[in-house]
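Example 9 (inverse folding). The structure is encoded as follows.
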């Protein structure tokens, strides 16, 4: 029988189906490699292509029980008890996340990002235009979404806002993720909504930076070269050692999820340069107070 390291069931299940699929996909890849089976041969064993095996190993698609049974047999993973545990975890991984109730409008790329965000241990990002979504007040979120989707009916804006605010529930957990954002000064000077909405948003940020798991650095308008790093991005890091960091890059009508080492290194290098160019976290409360006093 092929041996693989144990992975705690509770730790994985608490991360939700998206991260569970990625962990199980990584286990499946290690089993295949340990047994000396190519992706092409594995694909033939389940009447599929090499790309299907790649998607399974990346956790990008659900696990069919028949396919898993065939692959585990091919990989000589024969202990019945351990096979049953693997299959039981795969059933959990195939479960729907809460965000999938919006599948009638939620793009797959955004649903995948939300699932990963729900499981992340560290969320590190750069936001040049808005207050980060996880720290937006309801009124500010609605104002931003109305700005981004000016032609949508109020009902759709409300559904988008509800999803955004539901994502913030990860911050209320007993062990919330660590947040580390660099936000441009211009993003904190350009108000969305009326004066009351904007002041409430700045006060919300001031409360957030007092939390031990939240770091916010403000990038001055005169930062120069560091400020032209490009658009917003988010790096997600997970507690599970099998799952690599993922970079999410939102675009006008879609978003990209990057997990290749070269992409990760490039974005982490940009994040580090932005952090060096920005004011320290300790200066953030005073800067927010100044913005509030000027409104």
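The amino acid assigned to each position is listed next.
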């Amino acid at each position: 029988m092929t041996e693989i390291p144990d992975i705690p069931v509770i730790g994985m299940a608490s991360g939700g189906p998206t991260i569970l699929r990625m962990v199980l996909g990584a286990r499946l890849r290690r089993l295949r490699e340990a047994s000396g089976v190519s992706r092409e041969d594995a694909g033939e064993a389940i009447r599929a292509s090499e790309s299907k095996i790649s998607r399974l190993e990346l956790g990008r698609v659900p696990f069919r029980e028949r396919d898993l049974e065939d692959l585990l047999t091919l990989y000589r993973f024969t202990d019945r008890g351990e096979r049953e545990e693997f299959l039981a975890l795969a059933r959990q991984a195939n479960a729907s996340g809460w965000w999938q109730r919006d599948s009638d409008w939620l793009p797959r790329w955004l649903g995948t990002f939300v699932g990963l965000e729900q499981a992340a241990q560290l969320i590190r990002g750069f936001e040049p235009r808005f207050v980060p979504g996880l720290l937006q007040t309801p009124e500010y979120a609605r104002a931003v979404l109305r700005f981004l989707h000016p032609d949508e009916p109020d009902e759709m804006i409300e559904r988008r806002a509800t999803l955004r605010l539901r994502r913030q529930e990860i911050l209320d957990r007993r062990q919330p993720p660590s947040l580390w954002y660099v936000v441009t000064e211009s993003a904190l000077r350009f108000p969305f909504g009326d004066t009351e909405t904007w002041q409430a948003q700045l006060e919300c940020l001031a409360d957030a930076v007092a939390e031990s798991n939240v770091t916010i650095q403000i990038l001055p308008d005169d930062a120069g070269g560091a400020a032209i790093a490009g658009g917003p991005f988010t790096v997600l890091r997970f507690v599970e050692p099998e799952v690599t960091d993922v970079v999410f890059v939102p675009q006008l009508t879609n978003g990209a999820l990057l997990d290749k080492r070269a992409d990760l290194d490039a974005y982490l290098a940009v994040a580090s340069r932005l952090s060096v160019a920005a004011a320290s976290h300790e200066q953030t409360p005073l800067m927010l107070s100044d913005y509030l006093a000027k409104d």
